[in-house]
């Protein structure tokens, strides 16, 4: 027998352990469990949305308002798909829900508040900072209320296909309405700190209000207008490329006009439920 044959590294049975005897079963070697792409993807998208929201603050510090707003809007777009991807991949976890709430509170509460403060509200140091605090605080309170109601069986608004208050991503987009109008027109009135402060505080309380608002999932166009809806979405995409700020301002105004419609529609559903119960 040569020296190479005596080397245990060349023995195929060297790393197997003791030889099994008759009547014994080999114990399979355990493999280390790692994270799968299915489990990581939704959380990675949420983390990307968080980073985009915080990057918006960095652009605001350097005075690049266009990129600051776009960063928050991109965070909102990612926030709209991470939950759907998690449900599609069946990768919903409690960790993902908590991470999503943390990301939303920073991207749609803290980031817009600081961006608006640096853009306009800092000219009124006390009132402006109060308005920024109201936006950030109300966004966090809304998310805390949402988390507290996840396991509640009785949710009148949700069971009827409505939301309670203005969603956090939509609230962040609405808070930027004066900035959209200022970017589109250049009029200094839209950058007036008093005007911006009043609008920000009003928008903050819309987020924590008990107002029934329209859910996008409940908007189901009829078969007769589906072609028109597809054309409208295509034209909207073109408008966002050609006139982004004016288009965003129009979308905000359109959403505000839908608030009374959602309230009236929910009242009708509430009356029908009461009549059915009696």
TrEMBL record:
Residue span, CDP-alcohol phosphatidyltransferase C-terminal domain: 227-260
Biased composition regions of type Basic and acidic residues, renumbered to the chain: 1-12
PANTHER family assigned: CDP-DIACYLGLYCEROL--GLYCEROL-3-PHOSPHATE 3-PHOSPHATIDYLTRANSFERASE-RELATED, CDP-DIACYLGLYCEROL--SERINE O-PHOSPHATIDYLTRANSFERASE
Gene Ontology CC annotations of this record: membrane
Lineage of origin: Bacteria, Pseudomonadati, Pseudomonadota, Alphaproteobacteria, Sphingomonadales
Keyword Transferase: yes
Disordered: annotated span: 1-28
GO terms classed as biological process: phospholipid biosynthetic process
GO molecular function: phosphotransferase activity, for other substituted phosphate groups
Designated name of the protein: CDP-diacylglycerol--serine O-phosphatidyltransferase
Transmembrane annotation, as ranges: 35-59, 127-148, 160-182, 194-213, 225-242, 248-264
Family: Belongs to the CDP-alcohol phosphatidyltransferase class-I family.
Key words, A-Z: Lipid biosynthesis, Lipid metabolism, Membrane, Phospholipid biosynthesis, Phospholipid metabolism, Transferase, Transmembrane, Transmembrane helix
Topology in the lipid bilayer: Multi-pass membrane protein
One Pfam match: CDP-OH_P_tran_2
Localization in the cell: Membrane
The UniProt record lists the keyword Methyltransferase: no
């Amino acid at each position: 027998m040569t020296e190479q044959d005596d080397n245990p590294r060349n023995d195929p049975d060297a790393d197997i352990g003791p030889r099994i005897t008759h009547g014994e079963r080999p114990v399979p070697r355990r493999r280390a469990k790692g994270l799968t792409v299915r489990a990581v993807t939704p959380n990675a998208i949420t983390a990307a949305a968080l980073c985009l929201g915080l990057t918006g603050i960095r652009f605001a510090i350097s005075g690049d308002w266009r990129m600051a707003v776009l960063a928050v809007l991109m965070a909102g777009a990612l926030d709209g798909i991470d939950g759907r991807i998690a449900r599609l991949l069946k990768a919903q976890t409690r960790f993902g829900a908590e991470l999503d709430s943390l990301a939303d509170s920073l991207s749609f509460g803290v980031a817009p508040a600081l961006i608006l403060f640096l853009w306009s509200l800092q000219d009124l140091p006390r009132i402006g900072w109060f308005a920024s605090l109201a936006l950030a605080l109300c966004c966090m309170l809304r998310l805390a209320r949402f988390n507290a109601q996840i396991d509640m069986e009785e949710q009148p608004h949700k069971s009827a296909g409505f939301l309670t208050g203005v969603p956090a991503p939509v609230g962040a987009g609405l808070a930027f309405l004066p900035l959209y109008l200022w970017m589109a027109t250049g009029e200094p009135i839209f950058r007036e700190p008093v005007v911006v402060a009043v609008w920000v505080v009003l928008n903050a309380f819309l987020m924590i209000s008990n107002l029934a608002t329209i859910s996008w999932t409940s908007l189901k166009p009829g078969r007769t207008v589906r072609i028109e809806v597809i054309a409208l979405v295509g034209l909207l995409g073109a408008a966002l490329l050609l006139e982004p700020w004016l288009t965003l301002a129009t979308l905000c105004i359109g959403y505000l006009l839908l608030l009374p419609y959602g309230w009236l529609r929910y009242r009708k559903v509430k009356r029908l439920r009461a009549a059915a119960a009696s």
